[in-house]
Amino acid sequence: MIHLPTLRQLRHFAALADTLNFGRAARLANVTQSTLSASLQELEATLGAALVDRTRQRVMLTALGERILVRARKLLADAEELAIEARGAGEPLSGELRLGVIPSVSPFWMPRALPALRKAYPKLKLYLVEDLTERLVEKLAAGTLDAALLALPCECGPNDSHPLGRDPFRLIVRRDHPLAGRARVSPREIRAQKLLLLADGHCMKKHALAACGLRESRDPDPFAATSIFTLVQMVDNGLGVTLLPQMAIDAGLLKGTSLVSVAVEDDPARDLGLVWRKGTARRPEFELLAAALAKATGDSRKGASRV
Fold this sequence. Notes:
This protein has 11 helices and 11 strands. It has helices at residues 7-19, 22-29, 33-47, 63-87, 106-120, 133-142, 187-191, 203-211, 228-236, 246-250, 283-296; strands at residues 52-54, 59-61, 95-101, 124-130, 147-152, 159-174, 184-185, 242-245, 259-264, 269-277, 305-306. Strand 1 and strand 2 (59-61) form a beta hairpin.
């Protein structure tokens, strides 16, 4: 008979992997250090292999420990989903839900969506995590996030998604810029300008480049902004032009500046979607969440797609 590890042991192992320190891991798991240490020893004895290298200076996972950690996180996430599904069978979107959101969406969409979401689902405890797409996808795969609000297309693995609508790009220029009085500009005209963009790692950079038919340069841009707010300030100070999503403009991002927006030919846009792990039992809940997010922001499109 094969002896199986317990969820408690796996949870303690994951806490140690997150902190690489027995004291901090014990506090994270809300147990004593001796209890956590004993739990890890029991796990290693059950599996018949060392998962952690312990020295006086540091704690490191073994190669096997790294592989076991991936499976442990999935088991913990599946167990949590099982409990949440059973608890929320009679009442959808209740309890905790960890939602990742990219920085070019979070400050503009969520303030509009959250009040309506709280009203519709008062027992939902929504925890927001703002981060870049790549890291959100990693957290989603690891089970530390339940779903993520992303701009598509993106490399987000074999996940399921629900479309939330399209977010058009607009050219942003100073009022004294030659293109400011135009009703619409072409991508060719934009390519002739000093186009300021977000730094590498921000998916909005790739989508903005695609809107103009430009390829991403291999050389780092010394003028790349680290946030959409910094990007606006750079353009307002005459350093160039940029492309911003319509939702940011609608949220009042240009207020107090000398900037105006100009439509772009063919209305290039990014697609927004709610993404979750493929095969999860919580899919009906996430589809409800997607519908609520879309409705709260004025877009009631329905349907599902694969990414």
